[in-house]
Specification:
With about 130 residues, the chain is mainly α. Helix content is about 60%, strand content about 10%. The chain contains five helices and four strands; from the N terminus they run ββαααβαβα. The protein has a two-stranded antiparallel sheet with strand order 1-2. Strands 3-4 form a two-stranded antiparallel ribbon. Strand 1 and strand 2 form a beta hairpin. Helix 2 packs parallel to helix 5 and helix 4 packs across helix 5. The protein is globular and about 45 Å long.
Amino acid sequence: AIGARKFETLGQRNDASTAGLAAAIDFHERIGPAVVEARIRELADRAFTGLTAAGFELTTARPPELRVGVVVAKAEGPVAQEWHERLYRDHGVIGSNTGGLRLSPNICNTLADVDRAVAALTALRSRRS
């Protein structure tokens, strides 16, 4: 969406997100961008290492400095869609099925959250085999 429509949810203005924007910016500035980036890299590296160790083929760049906070496990359309839906429904893990199965941890996640996501994705893959 372009303009003010980007703040709408299903045709309704999302007042909660708009109201929370100032608090989110303040929180980010108090923590500092460097700390936020370092934490996101730590979490993404954990996901990358865990998925690699579990035998997933990743489309994510191998050099850590190119990964930032995104890790993508290779999966074809229907498989990626299934994993995406089941991760959310069965494990409470939110990802994306864009270009595979994409995990993008953020500052609010913990290492345990990442480990849980890796374990859940590993379990889903083993059920398909």
